[in-house]
Each structure stands twice: as C-alpha cells, then as structure tokens.
Amino acid sequence: MLILGIETSCDETAAAVVSDADVGARLRANLVFTQLEEHRLYGGVVPEIAARSHLERIDALVAEALREAGVDFADLDAIAATTGPGLIGGVMVGMMTAKAIAAVHGKPFVAVNHLEGHALTARLTHDLPFPYLLLLVSGGHCQLLAVEGVGRYRRYGGTIDDAVGEAFDKTAKLLELGYPGGPAVERRARSGDPRRIALPRPMVGRPGCDFSFSGLKTAVRHALGKLESVTPQDRADLAAAFQAAVADVLADRSARALARFQAETGQSGPLVVAGGVAANATLRARLSDVAQAQGTELIAPPMALCTDNGAMIAWAGLERFRLGAVDGLDFPARPRWPL
Ligand code: KG4
Ligand code: ZN
C-alpha cells in the first residue's frame, strides 16, 4: 500500500510517500520545506504569507516526493492531507491540492487530523501496538491521551492556558533569543545554570493531568525585570531555568497519567511522546526517566518526525485507509478540530 501525504497547516510545506512495509522500509520520501525565513522578520507565523508560500511550493514538492519514492500518481492507493486543525488558508491549500490529485487520478481522498498525525507517528517508526500513553506537545497543543486505536483517544488532561511550544516561543521572545523559540531556548540553555534563578512549577503535585504554562512565562518576565542589565549569561540561565521547569512539569504530569493508564489498562506502557517540543533532548531524557521508574520505556520518533512533516500525515492516512476510511471531496477544512 502506498499513500501520498500532504501537510500545510502551519509554516511547513510538506509532502511524503509512505508504505505499509516493515518498519525501516516505510518512508519512501519525506520532503519538508520550512518557511522559517519568510516569517522570521515578524517573530511568528503570518497566516497570509504562510498560505501564499504553501501555494507556490506544494505542486513542485509533491512531484519531487513522487520522484524520490520512484512512483507515479497511478501507483498510489490514496491521497491524504491535513484538513485541520491549523491556519485555514494553509489547510485549504494542501487539502485542495490533495482533492484535485484524487479527482484527476480517480484515487480515494483521506482527510487527516493533524493531531492524529502526531499521535500515530511512533507507529510509523516502531512496531508499536495499541494501547499506549501519549504526551502530545506542540506549538498549539499540550495533552496526555490514552491511544487505544486509530480514532480512539481518551483524554487524561490538557493545558488550561498556553500550549508548551507556545510557552517556549514566548519565552524565547522575552529573552530575545530569536525565532523559532523552542530550538533557540534549548541551544541557549546549554550554557546556562538552571538553578541560579528560581522559577515556579505550575500544577506539579496537583491531582489530575492538566498543565498550565502562562504563569511560568510571566515568571520569566518578572525575573528579567528584576535584573539591572540583562547579560548573555542571564539569558542563558533563564533559558535553562525555564527549560528545567517545563521538564519538571511535563515529567510530573506524565508520571501521574502513566499511573492512571497502568491502572486502567493493566499494561505497563509504553509512554510515547510526539509533536514539535518532543525534539527537545532535556525533555526526552526526563520522560525516559519517568517511564523507567514506572517499569516501562519511552518511545520517541526521530527529531525530524517530531516537528511537522508529511510522513506523519501519510502514515495516519494509511492507518485510516486500511481500516476502510475514505472521505468525500466535500470534506471541509476545520481550523479547530479536537482529537
Ligand atoms: O508540532 P510542531 O512542529 O507544530 C505544531 O503543530 O504546532 O511544533 C512546533 C513547536 C514550536 O512551538 C517550537 O518552538 C517547538 O515545537 N519546538 C521545540 C523544539 N523544537 C521545536 N520546543 C522545545 N525544544 C525544541 N528543540
Ligand atoms: Zn504539529
């Protein structure tokens, strides 16, 4: 089975071809064009610029993905695209491209929820049966879910304010570390002392599995305000303190969710992490400790498959398609679409 997947919901234009071969041979092509440079000047993603940029590149990217995979449109079993959640202009570009290909070549169209793409990525790269506990941490989302099957998600908790990636991005802005924020904070934190400046650990120790990050970001702002002149070392120390606080919060919440998952399913795990923030090495190390302390392991997709890409959409499309899911060409774009 061969599926083309298209992703255009934020600032990455992506196209990929995946198959249902054995792990290791599934990724036939995975091309990502990042619009970073087009948005850098504005310090964040500008929706109109993103949509136009997707439109300019998507056709060539799809053609290149097919070439790299060594296949034709005729060889494909279905065409999958992100139909939400995300920036509506960008979602429309990828979705309409996929629908047009499906219509012209007489192929099934499969609509994919971007979050489901992240949620199932670990099954593309690992022999991973259901169920598993998923920590989904991206720019727009922060959730803990029991993944019981394709389309079967039970939410244990989520953020009551900012998403964790958003907190990284806003903190990077406060610290003037550049854009995009997550990787910038991680880089600068390497030369920082996480213990010099104390930051809060919102929600740690509380019952339930919810998160809160806005207070942490505010605490960074206050800490900055107390410094007389902000040196590069101050920025590094604050970046390290922020990253350590986030890791503590995510570890505490994940440990709780894992205990609940173990009690409910009678299975030890595994703990799976996905989404752009899962590219953070400090975080991965902490989550790995959490999993081990509770008798299981952490499964994390490779970095390049944590941030937005086409392979995750192609794979989620494949998982849905092989269960019989096909969507109509009238399927709507959904800027908001919870899992
Ligand atoms: O999943 P993703 O690529 O897009 C969304 O669906 O949101 O996630 C992007 C988010 C951004 O907030 C970015 O700052 C964050 O993931 N991110 C990181 C790292 N790499 C990307 N956060 C922390 N550490 C990183 N290394
Ligand atoms: Zn994403």
Automatic annotation (TrEMBL):
Superkingdom, natural source: Bacteria
Cofactor binding, per record: Binds 1 Fe(2+) ion per subunit.
EC class (word): transferase
Alphabetical list of InterPro entries matching this protein: ATPase_NBD, Gcp-like_dom, KAE1/TsaD, Peptidase_M22_CS, TsaD
UniProt-listed Enzyme Commission number(s): 2.3.1.234
Reaction(s) this enzyme catalyzes, per UniProt: L-threonylcarbamoyladenylate + adenosine(37) in tRNA = N(6)-L-threonylcarbamoyladenosine(37) in tRNA + AMP + H(+)
Predominant place of localization: cytoplasm
PANTHER family named in the record: TRNA N6-ADENOSINE THREONYLCARBAMOYLTRANSFERASE, TRNA N6-ADENOSINE THREONYLCARBAMOYLTRANSFERASE, MITOCHONDRIAL
Protein family according to the UniProt entry: Belongs to the KAE1 / TsaD family.
Protein name: tRNA N6-adenosine threonylcarbamoyltransferase
Natural source organism: Aquibaculum arenosum
